[in-house]
Amino acid sequence: MFTLRSLLALALATTGCLLAPAAMAQAFPSKTVTIIVPAPPGGTADITARMLQEPLSKALGQPVVIENRGGGNGAVGTQALLNAPPDGHTLLMQFSGFHVMTPQLVKVPFDPLKDLQAVANVMSAPQVLALRSSLPFKTARELVDYARKNPGKLNYSSAGNGSVQHIAAELFKSLTDTRIVHIPYRGTGPMVTDLLASQVDFTLTTAPPLVGHIQAGKLRALLVASDQRLPALPDVPTAKEAGIPNFEVQSWFTLYTHGKAPRAAVDRVAAEVQKIVSTPEFQKKAGEQGAQVTFMGPEAMTRYAQAEYERWGKVIKVQGIKAD
C-alpha cells in the first residue's frame, strides 16, 4: 500500500526523469568544446573548422579549440574522438574521403558510419586538378596526351593511401587511360607545400587550399571536377569542358561526434551551426575559398553519407581502384 509520503516521492522522481533531458540540454556545453581536425593544418577540413571556431564559441558561450590530429588518412583523429568522453564536447571535422571511401580500400579499426554520429554538414567543394607552374601543360588534354606517350613519367600527390585525392586521381587515370605515379602524403597541407616547391607534378584536391596559390600564379589549374565552374576560379573549365566527361568528385566536410553523445548536445550544435553558415558573411567566405555552404542536419547527413558510401563503393569496384 502506498503512503502519502511514498506517492510524493514517486511523483518527484517521475518529474525528475521528465526534466532530465531538458536539464541536459541546458547544461550543454559546460566546458571547452574541442573540434578535432583529423589532418595537418592547411587542408579544407582545417579551413572549415577554423571558419566555424569563433562564431561557434560565441554561440555556445564556451571556448572552441581546434586540435589537429593528422595520421592514418584520418584514422588517428577519428580514434581520438572515439577515445574522448561521449558527452558532445568533442567534435570531429570529418572529410568525406575518409568517411565513405577509405574504409572500402584500407582497413580501419572502427566503422565511421556506425561509430560516429552526424551533427551538421558545413561545406562542400569539388576537386581541382592543379599542377606546378613550371610544367608546360596549359590544358588537361595536353597533360593527358603527354602522360599517354610517357607512361610513368608524371606523378601526382595525395593526402594518403585511400584518400579522396588518391581515388579521384585513380578515377582520372582510368577515364583517360594513363599511367601516372602516386606519391602519398600525410595530409593536404604538406602535399600542397611540396607541390609549390615543385617536388611533385600535380594534385587533385578541393579548392580552398589551392585558390590563393592559383590566383597568384604559383600553381596552374587545368580543370574542376564538377558540372559547374567555380566563381572563385571562373577561367578554369569543368572536366566535361576539358574533354573528360563523367569526372565529378565532390568532397564534403561535416561535424561528427561520438556515436553515444547525448542527442540534446548534437541538436544544440547543429542548430547553432545552421545559423552560422546561413549568414551572408560565412557564405561569402566559403565562396571565396572555392567552396559552398551545403548544410544538412543529423538525419539528412546520416542518410546522405550512407548513399555516398554505396555510390563510391560502386565506382571503386567498377573502376578497379585499389590501395597501393
TrEMBL record:
It comes from Piscinibacterium candidicorallinum. Keywords: Signal. Pfam families: TctC. Belongs to the UPF0065 (bug) family. Gene3D superfamilies: Bordetella uptake gene, domain 1 (3.40.190.150), Periplasmic binding protein-like II (3.40.190.10). Residues 1-25 form the signal peptide. This is Bug family tripartite tricarboxylate transporter substrate binding protein. InterPro entries: BUG (IPR005064), Bug_dom1 (IPR042100).
